[in-house]
Amino acid sequence: MAPSPRYRPEPAFRHGREATTGLLFCNLGTPDAPTTPAVRRYLREFLSDPRVVEIPRLLWLPLLHGIILPLRSSRSAAKYASIWDPKGSPLALWSARQAGLLQDWLDARGHRVMVRHAMRYGTPSIAAELDALKAAGAKRILVLTAYPQYSGTTTASVFDAVGDWARSTRHLADLRLCSRYHDQPAYIDALAARIRDHWAANGQAEHLVLSFHGVPRRTLDLGDPYHCECLKTARLLAERLGLARDRYTVTFQSRFGKAEWLQPYTEPTVRELARKGVRSLDVACPGFTSDCLETLEEIGMEVRDAFLEEGGTEYRYIPCLNDQPAWIDALGQLALDQLAGWPTQDAPDTAALAASAERALALGAEA
């Protein structure tokens, strides 16, 4: 029996084909359907990642397969069913739309960049989409994640998947990895525009909660920058909105297990705000660029119910960036910054060349 090949087969070589540039936009992932078997497959892949759960494998895997997956899959499937769109998972739909709009944005500005999207867990996989970009002729590939704030549990896991693909690939493309953009002005502007638009349509509540996805507290102690980058995003956003420090609160959601996670936790904080007399509350999730289970079900339903149970009267969830024009502009600007130096245009930018010549003449005259 012949041994299995170490490397993936290379796409058919075509003489004279011009090398092109690709961009892979990566999000976390989602089940293929809101059913127990599909959710179980998804959770198995997600929770088996040592970047996500750092418990020793000998302890964690029996617990995962023997208790967590059997108990949690059906409960999670019911939650997914409550937010599922007739066309599919909201996160999958938004991710595909964002990639398509980014392609349109780059095309409209004369940049020849092939844009595809992938999921770290589930489909379409990172390896499959990198293969597709290679097969289409990409010799340069930028990997851009949907995570503005870097975390080992998310960003680094995407890079692990890219590395796994690279280890099984004979002819590698040039690769660039964008690790964070939590303080990029265009991203902050897009968040501020989303919130201002919501306020213009619905009025501004007494208080704003900015809820980020949580991670175990020990990741901060071990040097993960995620907590600090979330706080910086929140501070810059509040400044852009002109909010005083007592008008907003930063929290962390989606805690899993009994270990301490980043605090303050979102639901207990919202309950406490209501008990202290806050009657109207707006909640936004700046770290999520696409609406998904954690925003639509957890924040839009569970946390809303908690606030109203404690005496709150008005609760409004502010949707994620999704397909907002300001967000697509931010994505496009970020992509061009990261692609700098790689050829992406059919013809020279004559305006840029003229401006460069004028600057050179000016410098020569000054000399």
From TrEMBL:
* Record key words, sorted: Cytoplasm, Heme biosynthesis, Iron, Lyase, Metal-binding, Porphyrin biosynthesis
Please name one Pfam family that this protein belongs to.
Ferrochelatase
Family annotation (InterPro entries): Ferrochelatase (IPR001015), Ferrochelatase_AS (IPR019772), Ferrochelatase_C (IPR033644), Ferrochelatase_N (IPR033659)
* Record bears the keyword Protein transport: no
The UniProt catalytic activity note for this protein reads: heme b + 2 H(+) = protoporphyrin IX + Fe(2+); Fe-coproporphyrin III + 2 H(+) = coproporphyrin III + Fe(2+)
Give the main localization category: cytoplasm
Listed GO MF terms: lyase activity
**Annotated Gene3D superfamilies:** 3.40.50.1400
- Subcellular localization: Cytoplasm
Q: What does this protein do?
A: Catalyzes the ferrous insertion into protoporphyrin IX.
Which family does the record claim for this protein?
Belongs to the ferrochelatase family.
**What protein is this chain from?**
Ferrochelatase
Q: Which organism is it from?
A: Ramlibacter aquaticus
